[in-house]
Amino acid sequence: MSRKVIANVVVTIDGRITGPGGAADMSVIAPHGVSEQARDRLLEMTRATTAVVGRKNHEGFAGWWPQVASMPQADPRDQVFSRWLTSVPTVVFSTTTTEASLPNATVVDEDPAAVITRLKAEGDGDIRVLSSISIIRALLAADLVDRLELTIAPEIIGAGGAPLFDESPRSSWQIVDHVASDSGAIMLTLDRTPAPDRAAAEMTELPVRRVLRVREVVESERLTDFQGRAFGAIWQTLAAAGSASAEHPYLRCHQETATTMDVEVGVPVDDVDYQGPAEVGSLPGGPALVHTHVGSHASLGEAYAVLAAADTGELVPAGAPWEVYQWCDLSTELDPTSWPMPEEWRTLLVQPLQQDGSEG
């Protein structure tokens, strides 16, 4: 089982991780790190079997935490955390030093995403990223954070505070726990909601589909214009036959050069005699790999990468894939104003397959 990566950090309402005075200004953040509830969270952190920090936090932790275990006046929860931090295997990311100050710490000068990917595949137990902002940002960008523990300080900093999420890609999260602290903060535990593109592609068996289609070689920069013309021709052909299609339209690019595309737009239809600018054709049946992408088409490349990485055994691609636009249909004339926002578009990618060595 893959290990869970958990990152904890204190942020303001507007997502800042420092006060208005810059990187050294912890005036807004610090009071919320020593509440009763924050100390309870320290105990939760000690369940992890690997700690991850950046150089600055490593130096700060090493200068304080090792001595806490032997302080008689220290909170018992702080003492437990102290003993854990000085015994747990710790990865320190740094480009400027090779010396570790904490026991069991190893300094690495590598891409955090690559290191964490390796760690997730090895060993057991959670991996805890201890408030190290540069590491959290890098892991969010690589979609490697499974759980976020955010302490939301009840402050809006505005200009001046360092933002945590400004350069992070879009992602979805589910609140699984929330606690109000006696310092006035809200402590949220959020688990990553798997996006469809994070799921594996699936094998299926497709029937041969009769379609109405328009196929042309067009300049790549004119693709959107072609789609509009093709949908219009298909709708005109459907209307002339007194028919309609509640099926979702598709686009299939048979071949592409640096400047042109041999592209087909169509929609599955019934067994009706159609006469018009669109022609009757078919989409192949048989084994296929399918995968659903949610979001604008600007990020479709991520979904195609999932298809390309799928294990299909002895089966190989049988011609070009196609995209099924599940967010619209041709039961009525296309009305773009009725479509959902692009970030809600569901596009099914279909890659037909065949036995390796068989005729395409």
From TrEMBL:
- Which GO biological process annotations does it have? riboflavin biosynthetic process
Q: Boundaries of each Bacterial bifunctional deaminase-reductase C-terminal domain copy?
A: 3-185
GO MF terms held by the record: 5-amino-6-(5-phosphoribosylamino)uracil reductase activity
Name listed for the protein in its UniProt record: Bacterial bifunctional deaminase-reductase C-terminal domain-containing protein
Family annotation (InterPro entries): DHFR-like_dom_sf, Reg_factor_effector_dom_sf, RibDG_C, Riboflavin_Biosynth_HTPR
